[in-house]
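Mods, move this if it's the wrong board.
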Amino acid sequence: MLENYFPVLLFIILGVVIGMVPVLLGWVLAPHRPDAQKNSPYECGFEAFEDARMKFDVRYYLLAILFILFDLEVAFLLPWASILKEIAATPAMRAFGFIEMIVFLGILVIGYVYVWKKGALDWE
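Not the wrong board. Structure tokens:
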């Protein structure tokens, strides 16, 4: 009975080895020469090595949430685009599919304009 699980065990071991070899090779072979430029703040504007429990500006979270909201539209646009031929097969479905996507995109545009007017996309 246990011999049936040997391929699974072999697959797990092989996966761990393949995942760990590049990490270990990079750790052993890579040069370790930190300097002031490498340790300087990058993109977020905070020091690289400070207390991890420091307070972040709420704008980071707001921008992340807005990115997720407007990025999720792709999750709705791609399936619609993939069945576009089936939607356009009959005139009634063609009009319905077009109108539903115009309504969806209109709601997104209204939300985008609202966020833009509120200044949530402005960065100081």
